[in-house]
Design a protein that fits this description.
Blueprint: H1 5-8, H2 24-31, E1 51-54, E2 57-59, E3 68-72, E4 75-79, H3 86-96, E5 104-108, H4 114-117, H5 120-127, E6 130-134, H6 138-143, E7 166-168, E8 173-176, E9 179-185, E10 194-200, E11 211-216, H7 240-253, E12 258-261, H8 269-279, H9 287-314
Parallel strand pairs: 4-5, 5-6, 6-7, 11-12
Antiparallel strand pairs: 1-2, 2-3, 3-4, 8-9, 9-10, 10-11
Length: 315
């Protein structure tokens, strides 16, 4: 579920203090038998006033479930439809910014779990946007999560199936008008988990200065994720450990100035917003925070993998 935002706050540092690295999120995710669902996390549905991140990038999600509006010369791109109840909130945010919901031409996502995809069918129905999904998550989206590798599980609630108009592959670009986004397959959390990158100018910076924007898909896992086959259970899916390892390698190589993600707490959204009224969109320029986030997640994964490998040998 995109890292389950209700737990994410444990793992990342408080930017008002000196650097604090805590890994309790992933410990909890690896040990929790039943992740807490959206109805137990008000931040997933609490509205947040929309705001500008870059010249053509706006935040239109809730306090915790991130959704991004990308403005182009030929219509708009929406990243993440979120919960089944989210489209109305996202639409309200889009219209508060002065844009037209009907101008949404393309729908993208970070991953096919319900907290990022359950609203997709409604967004497509209302806007007729073309729905584009990374290979690995296509059947999950089109089956409403019934082909998720964890199904059946309370961790992956079902949602309305949504047709996929374009199957994306690692490194594919999505071009609309004057905007190009690149899809990076960062699998493991889901088979088609996707990190998006693009370049844009940040308001307040010198004209012509372009920044690298990274929207991280997710790297978390919990007790139902099995990286090592044993006599009691197989891998969650063949090659899942290798996918996670490739994801960290990919993320480490990406140039990042503006750090964003599928969940607000990935990039300390609410903390940064406290500085936004004075500092403006530049608060999201955070290459150090990005590197720390990836490093912490990789360290936690490697520890869990080593523990599973040791447990498999003991059996």
């Amino acid at each position: 579920m995109g890292g389950f935002g209700q737990l994410i706050g444990c793992v990342f540092r408080d930017r008002c203090e000196s650097r604090v690295v805590v890994s309790c999120l992933f410990v909890l995710l690896c040990s929790a038998a039943k992740p807490i669902l959206a109805e137990n996390n008000p931040a997933w549905t609490t509205p947040l006033a929309p705001f500008r991140i870059a010249d053509n990038v706006y935040y239109v999600g809730s306090q915790e479930l991130a959704s991004y509006l990308i403005i182009t010369s030929d219509g708009n791109i929406l990243i993440n439809a979120n919960l089944a109840s989210s489209p109305s909130q996202i639409r309200t945010s889009v219209e508060k910014l002065g844009f037209h919901w009907s101008d949404t031409r393309i729908l993208l996502n970070n991953q096919a779990h319900f907290d990022h995809m359950a609203g997709a069918a409604e967004v497509v129905r209302e806007t007729h946007a073309r729905n584009m999904v990374m290979d690995g998550d296509v059947s999950v989206a089109e089956s409403g999560a019934r082909t998720d590798f964890l199904f059946p599980s309370p961790s992956v609630p079902l949602y309305a199936p949504v047709h996929v108009d374009r199957v994306l592959h690692d490194g594919d670009t999505v071009v609309l008008g004057n905007v190009t986004l690149t899809a990076h397959k960062t699998a493991g959390h889901t088979r088609g988990c996707t990190t998006w990158t693009m370049r844009s100018h940040i308001p307040g910076e010198p004209a012509g200065t372009m920044r690298n924007i990274v929207i991280v898909g997710g790297m978390s896992f919990w007790s139902e994720y099995h990286f090592v086959p044993t006599s009691m259970h197989p891998e969650s899916y063949p090659g899942i450990a290798q996918d996670f390892q490739h994801t960290f390698l990919t993320l480490r190589r990406l140039p990042c100035d503006v750090f964003l993600g599928a969940h607000g707490e990935y990039f300390d959204l609410l903390t940064k917003l406290k500085r936004y009224p004075k500092a403006g969109p530049g608060v999201f320029v955070d290459p150090a925070g990005y590197k720390e986030f990836v490093s912490d997640a990789q360290n936690t994964f490697e520890k869990a993998l080593a523990e599973q490998q040791a447990a498999a040998v003991r059996r």
